[in-house]
Recover the amino acids of this structure.
């Protein structure tokens, strides 16, 4: 649940990109709390009635709108904003897309695929995938970041050293995130909320969903961070790991190719064990599977594995 | 503890490399159990009296000796061996090395460093790092693999699609590993035992230690696996994750560079928080830190994070 905050920022559909010239919606004192109301990353282009046939006519320039920015009084370059995630209010519906434009296996999955989800926004019931699989709700913002100190407006798609499209699935309740400030006030914006995603977001989308996010924002003077860092309050995998994992190993001199191999092999494994279609398995790998680097020192060959939680089928 | 096995293979110091022409030490029936007694990967070149000054005169051609191979009756190409880890008997001493020859930050750590460890082989007491940090014992074989069907003898250093130097730290008690068979009998060997390592083994060595490993070996006909896969019986991180993690984010178009960034930033963080030297922090990252791919789809920029368990300092 979201908590009562000092400020509420309504959804926005017209704030795209990172710029030091974006005027803040509000300026807060360090230690105050803000509820960011956030649309899904489709920015209105995808509704609960959309199908895969609609993808080709969507306006992707409207994707990934942000809510914000907010300024923090006294924040200067070389400080950090400390953001504590207090609570989440998910909308109860969402979507996932597979397309040749995204994901690490576009060669194997060239055709557009759209899945519309409905789920219990309280999180008390697991999210069901058509009776084939289930997993817990775990909301977080895929995008959270500050403006960078440069003339151009930066795209929302790639992350940067002050945050942005990090897609770190552990930025959830209780986590404390530190983002390096480059411009006066910091200029914090959030977007691209997800309610389920594994490490890697390997098919290119998560379970994308509108979510309101409550945060406390503090100021750490002279933090001098090179990039985002965070602390988790406990076991980050406890929502899925109790009965263990299936794991497939990718073995390659190239980490990206290792990730592709381990994903292909997991798709093979899941389709054999659980009578899923290949695209079902690919999507579930993006939502529930974790890409891990087992070793990157046995020159010149690395091992990248995909850990898929068994609980999804139990 | 190791369990009573049908066969015991003593330590060997002269079996290096993967070859279909290596004669098996024994041939077992599917379902039988074997205790592999394994020297540390130093192969006798490192003793409890060694120091960093000795590294330059070590004979690295004697490193990474294997114990084996064993043949499994009836194993043919396209089958898999299923290996269940039954138990471990660690020696109570070990070593870790940092050298410009290994690790992902040789530019920052060019000087040789050798740490000799003594620890409780029962695992009941945590392993202590000079009063600065502690972590639980969790033994596994860094090398476990089968011979490949090729003319040449393959080096032990790089892993391959039938296993080898995988350095997967979850090949521990209760895990079930499947390795693709390429030659008659499979020709299974083990080596390079570790008692602590994080995902990545990023400084190039783990806590290297002699360990006896008991396994059950079964045969899965016509498994047709492309590479190793395994299942874990429960939470693979439960030995360290109860109080959460410090996490640093590496942000780069190159996954390897992202891993280097997140490691450098974790070294900065640990030296500030816990008064460690940089080389202490680098070594602890190799033994306890986990490299994770958070996203590899926000083209062209990826996020690779290093998760370091807080429990190491509590």
């Amino acid at each position: 649940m979201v908590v009562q905050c000092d400020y509420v920022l309504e959804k926005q559909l017209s704030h795209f990109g990172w710029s030091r010239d974006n005027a803040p919606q509000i300026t807060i004192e360090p230690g105050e709390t803000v509820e960011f109301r956030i649309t899904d990353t489709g920015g209105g282009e995808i509704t609960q009635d959309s199908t895969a046939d609609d993808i080709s006519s969507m306006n992707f320039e409207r994707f990934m709108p942000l809510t914000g920015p907010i300024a923090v009084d006294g924040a200067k370059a070389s400080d950090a904003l400390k953001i504590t995630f207090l609570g989440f209010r998910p909308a109860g519906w969402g979507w996932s897309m597979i397309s040749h434009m995204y994901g690490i296996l576009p060669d194997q999955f060239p055709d557009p695929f759209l899945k519309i989800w409905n789920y219990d926004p309280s999180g008390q019931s697991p999210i069901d995938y058509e009776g084939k699989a289930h997993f817990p709700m775990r909301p977080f913002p895929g995008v959270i970041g500050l403006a960078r100190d440069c003339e151009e407006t930066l795209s929302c798609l790639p992350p940067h050293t002050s945050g942005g499209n990090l897609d770190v699935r552990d930025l959830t309740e209780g986590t404390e995130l530190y983002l390096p400030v480059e411009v006066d006030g910091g200029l914090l914006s959030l977007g691209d909320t997800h309610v389920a995603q594994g490490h890697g977001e390997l098919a290119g989308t998560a379970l994308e969903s509108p979510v309101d996010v409550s945060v406390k924002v503090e100021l750490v003077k002279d933090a001098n961070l090179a990039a985002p860092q965070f602390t988790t309050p406990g076991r980050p995998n406890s929502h899925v790991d109790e009965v263990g994992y299936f794991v497939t190993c990718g073995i390659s001199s190239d980490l990206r190719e290792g990730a592709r191999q381990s994903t292909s092999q997991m798709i093979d494994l899941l389709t054999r064990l659980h009578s899923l279609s290949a695209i079902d398995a690919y999507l579930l790998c993006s939502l529930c599977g974790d890409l891990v680097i087992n070793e990157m020192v046995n020159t010149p060959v690395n091992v990248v594995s995909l850990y898929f939680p068994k609980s999804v089928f139990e």
Notes: Helices of chain B lie at 255-274, 278-288. Chain B touches chain A through 71 residues (CB under 8 Å). Chain B has a mean pLDDT of 97. Residues 267 and 278 of chain B are 6 Å apart (CA to CA).
